[in-house]
Amino acid sequence: MNQGQLPRVPLLDLRAQHRTIRDEVLAALRRVVDAQAFILGEEVEALERELAEYCGTRFAIGCASGTDALLLALLALGIGPGDGVVIPPFTFFATAGAVVRAGARPLFADVEASTFNLDVDRAAVLACSLPRVRAVIAVHLFGACADMDPLREVAARRGIALIEDAAQAIGAEYKGRRAGALADVGCFSFYPSKNLGGYGDGGLLTTNDPALAERLRALRVHGSRERYVHEWVGFNSRLDALQAAVLRVKLRHLDEWTEARRRHADYYRRRFAELDLPVVAPSAPPYATRHVWNQFVIRAPERDRLREHLSRMGIGTEIYYPVPLHLQPCFRDLGYRPGDFPVSEQLTREVLALPIYPELTEEQLETVIEAVRSFYRQ
Q: For residues 38 and 57, what is the distance between their CA atoms, to the nearest angstrom?
């Protein structure tokens, strides 16, 4: 198959998804527009109930973004200046950015090369050896849960908070329990590229703690439970009803879309093994009993040349993530240096995300696989 015969395969095609739910979405949007109730209200409350049930938690609290969800969680847990928060250096910037915005200090622990998630032994050493550690944020990267039982044990022993950054992991399961129900609080994003994505920004927090849920609801509206009476200094992070209406439609389809992603991931892994290609295809760790594949990220020799090759072949890719957090320019004052977290640094040189969205056809999957094969066999 030559280049001229290859169809273009984007990294993500939201239009393909929209075509399947267009009438449902437009009906939901009309409902909100006709009601003229756009901020919080019944639509958001209904989504919160549905997502609490979906995640297996008592409470769900909508907010304006996944980044805000992380910041709200830290504030509600009383984490601020002088406190340390253990996080991985290989994740999206918001994880560290929220810690700094709360006034706390990110304390990095390296990740596992096989899972991309926090190395729990390294995280435990930090949490148990430093006096001002107040929380650990476990990121469920690319749709697979981190190993939560050891982290819960460490958090309970030290009396510190455990937060799930589940921005990429709605519906993921750890030993049969859903992401968002595995810690003190779970944080989700509804950015359009997520498995459950809105038509704009949006976020959610989950918890089983009624007092924490009450604080979170107040903090998202300037720290107020009673109008014009402010018990805490919060900020404006309200989920709007239009986004909630879209998300309620999409939630009805989420499990079907997730199973399609899981089939695609299995197909990639099987075909890469059959072709004996030198890429390392991701797999779910045994405790991650449901990987939801927000991204399918391979580790590839000559990653940058491979990406250029795929681009020429019409294949969309992305590098998640090219710079580890401890080497970001804005964090120079934290004192970290190249070599401090070798696994994360190696991953930034090797990782490459391939198309995994639910609407992919087998022909498109084979197109991607053939393009990868052609690079390593040329």
A: 26
